[in-house]
Fold these 3 entries.
Entry 1:
Amino acid sequence: MPSDTPAQHASEAERLERIAVQYPEDNEQVLLRAAAHRELAGDRPGASALYDRLLSDEPRNPPLIKALKAANLWEYGHEAEARAIIDGIRAAAPRDSAPWEIIAEALETHDDLQAAHDCFTTGATLLIDGGEVPYEARLLLVGRHRVRRMLGTPHDEWDTLADTLHAGDISLDELHNPKRLWALGSDDPAELRAEIARLRAELGERRAALSRPFPVAVLHWPASELAELLAAYPSIAAEYPSHAEHVAGVESALRELASTGAENFGIVTGTVPSFEAFAAAEQTSPDDPSLLPEYTTSMAARGRATPWPPARNAPCWCGSGLPYGGCHGGSSGA
C-alpha cells in the first residue's frame, strides 16, 4: 500500500530500519530510503539521526549522505550547520552529480540563488570534460538554467546546451520563467489553468528523467565476487564460463545495445551479500540463474548502477585501474 500519510511514512521507515538490521551488508541504500520516509513523516530529527548513523559507518557515498543531511537540517531550522556541511561538500568537489544537485536545490529553495548557481556550475564543470555531456550532468545544466533565469542572467553556452538537450514540448525558457510564480497567485482562471498545464508538463518530464537513468543495465561481477558466487552456487556456473569471458561479454553487450540507438546504459557491480539479500527478500534461492536479471534491474532501480561508457581517461569500469580508453574502451573493446 502506498505511504501517503505521516503515520504510513513512519511505519515504512521502521520497517526499513528492521530490514537494515537483517541485512547489514546492504544497509546504506535501505537506511537512505528509511531517512526519506522519516522526512516525509515530519520526523526530521529522526532522519538526521539515520544520516549520522550512516556517516559513522564508512559509507560508500559520503558526499551524497552529507548533502541529504544538510538539506534536511535546513528544513527544520539548522541553517548554520547545513551551510557548514554544504561548504565541506563544495571543498571536497565530488565527481558525482547527486550531491551537487541536492545542495544546489537546497540553496535555491532558501533563496540563496547565487550560491545555488555556483554549485550547479561547479558540479557540471567537474562532470563535463569537453566531450559528450554525461546523462547525470544534464539535470545540473537544467538546474543551472533555472537559477540563471531567476537571477536575470543572459544565456551562455551551457544554457544553450541545456536547451538543446531538453526534449520536452515546453521550452526551458518557458518552464523557468520567473513570472510563472506570480501566475500561481492570480485570480484569473485562464492564467491558473495555463500554469497548471505547464506544471503538469514539467512534473511529467521530471518523472520521466528520474525513470530514465538506467533503463538498461548489465551485471558485472569482479573476479573475487564471481569466484565466491560460483563456489557457493555452482548451478550458476553455466552463466559464467570464465571471468575473462564474463568481463568481455559485459562490454560487448553494452556496445551492441548502443548500436541499436538505445540510451542511458548502466553497469551494476554485483556482490554476493547483496545478491543473497535480494534472493531472501524475493523468497527465492540464490542458486536460481533466472534471479540474476531481476537482481540487476533491482540494483539499477535503487541507484546502484554506474553510467556507461566512462570518459576515455576515466578508470575502466572493470576495475583494472587502467583508463577506459586503454582498456575496454579501446577499438577492440578487449
Entry 2:
Amino acid sequence: MKQPSQQADDNSTQYQRALDEGWLPIREVARQTGVNAVTLRAWERRYGLIVPLRTPKGHRLFSQEQVQQVLTILTWLNRGVAVSQVKHLLDNTPAHSAPAENDWQRLRQSLSQAISQLAERKVDDVFNQAMALYPPRTLCEQLLMPLLAELEQHWQGQFGSQMEQVFFYSWLRSKLGARIYHNNRQLQGPPLLLVNQSDLALEPHLWLTAWLASSADCPVEVFDWPLPGAELALAVERLQARGLLLYSSKTLNPTHLPKLLNGITCKKFIAGPAVCIHPAEWSVCITRVADLNLAQDPIAAYQALLQRGLF
C-alpha cells in the first residue's frame, strides 16, 4: 500500500504529464478566453458545458478543442443567447446560425422591477446569479447597457425617477467598486486612471468601463468627478498611470483638450456620448493631441484600451 507522500508524488507526476501533453489548467483557460474560473465551473455544473478532464485530486484540465468551444460559447453569448440555450446550439447548429430566443429581457425586467421597489437585496441577487454565468463584457453588453438605456427612457418625466436613479447608480457604483477594489488588491503595476468629466455624479458608464478594464487584470483608479488640468497631470504623474481615460456624457469642447491634456505623455482616451458631438472638431483634436483615442461607450472603450496595449 502506497504511503500518502508516494501517492502525492504520483498525483503530481500525472498532473505534470497531462500539462506536458498539452492539457491546460483552468487558470490558463481563463487567461486565454477572459472567462473566469468561477464561470467555467458554473457552466460545467449547471449546464454540462465544457466538461474537463479531472485529475485524482480534482484539478480541471482542458484541451485546446475545449478552449475553442469556450470561444464559440462567447460568440453565442455576445449575440444575446442565454447560456441555458447554448448547449443545444453547440450540439445541433453551426456558429453562424440565427440565435435562439434568450432571457436577457427577463433579467432586465427582474432588475427593473427590483429597482422600482428599491429592493437592494433583489437587485444584488439577480445580478450575482447573472455574474456567475456570464463574463463581464457579455453582462455589460447584453444586460447592463440595455438596462440603463431602458431605465433612462423610463425615468424621463416620471415621478420618483430621481429616487430610483440615485438608488440604482449608488448600488452600481458600490457593487462594481467592490469588485475593482478586490481585483486591485491582487494586481501589480501602474493603474489606468479613469476620470468622470460629466456633470452626472456616479456616472454609471464610467464604472462599467472601469469594471471591464479591471476584469482584464488591469489595475484601475477611478476619480468620480473632474479635475482641473494642472491637477490632472499631477494625478497621472503621482500614480505613474499607464493611461488616462476621461468619460463624459455631456458636450466637451475639443479645442480645450490640448490645454487640459498638456504635459500628459501616457496614452489618452476620451469616452462617452461626448465624442459623437461635433465629429469634425474631434478629428482635428486627434491630430493635435498625441496618443488620443475616442470611444463612444464602455464596450468601445474596452476595445480601444485592448488594441492600444493597456492590458
Entry 3:
Amino acid sequence: MKNLLKIQQKLIPEVVEIMTKRYLVLREISLNGPIGRRALATNLQNSERVVRTETELLKQQGLIDVDLKGMTITEEGRELLRDLKDVMSDAMGLNELQEEVRQHLGIKKVVLIPGSYDNNHSLLKDISKQAAKYFLHVIKEDDIVSIAGGSTMLEFAKSIKSDKKYNSVTVVPARGSVGLDVETQSNNVVAEVSKNIHANYKLLNVPDQLCEESIKTLTQEPEIKNTLELIKNSNVLVFSIGRADEMVKRRKLSDEKAKDIMNKKAVGEAFGHYFNKKGEIVYKLNTVGIDMESFKNKRETIAVFAGRKKAEAFIPISKINKNIVLITDEESAKEILKLG
C-alpha cells in the first residue's frame, strides 16, 4: 500500500492530495461527531462548499451518518481510519518529520498527529488518544505510574480505554495540587487513570508548593511519606509541559517572585523547576513530588503537549532527559525545528 502511494505521488499527485483531504475530514468527524458542516469547516479551515462535497461522498460510501444532530462516523469509517493511519502518516510526510525531530532533540521517540492544534483545538483529543495508546503499550505488571495534572493530562486520562485489568499496577500523582481547578489536579487525573486501567492508586492530599518547614513536617506523616516513596520509585511518568510565563500565574506567585523568574530568562516549567533555553534550572520552588533526579531515572517518560507556544518550553526539558517519548501535533514539531 505504501509503495503504491509513493508511485501515485509521482504519477498522479492529485490522488494523494484528495485522499489526504478526505482522510482529515473523516478523522475530524470521528473526533468531534456529531458535528455540523459549519463547525467542521471551521475546524479544518476550509469552505463549507468543499466540506459539503467531501461529506456527501463519505456518506455515499457508508463511512459517515448524517442526521439532525450532525455527522457521525460509522463503524466502517472507524475501521478505515485505523487501516489508513500508518499509510497516511507516510503519505503526509509525518514519519519523516517524526524522525527529524527525534534526531534533532536526541530523544527516544516522537509521535505526531497531523495538523495544527493552534488552528484546531480538537486535535488535543487525537493527541491524547495516541498518548493513551502508547501508555497502554508500555506499562507492565507491578509498575508504579506517576501522572502530572493539568488539562492535557485530564484529556489523556479520559482517552484511556482498556479491558485488561492492571491489578498489580499502582498509579500516583507526580506532584501535589496546583491551582484551584479540582478537575485538572493530579489527584483527580490519577483517579481517572486508575479507574480506566482497573489499577490501584494513592493520592497526595497536599498543595504542590509549601514552605520548607511545612514540607519537612508533612513528609513525616506515614500516608504522605508512603505516597512520596511510591512517586520517587515510579517506573513510568506521564506529564505535560508548562510555559514559564503561564505557570507563574497559575501558581499565583507574588509579582516579585514572578518577575525574578522571568528576569532569569525562564521559558519552561516542570515539577516546580523553571528552565532557560539551555536547559539550566534558573529557579526552583519548594514543591512536593517528582524531583529532577527521579525525573531522569524512569523506564518510560511520556511528554504530551499541544500548541506552538509550548514548543519552546519543551526543548529545555529534552536536554535534561533524553529518555523521553514526545507526543504532540505536527505544527508544534515544526516549531521545535524552527527554534533550533
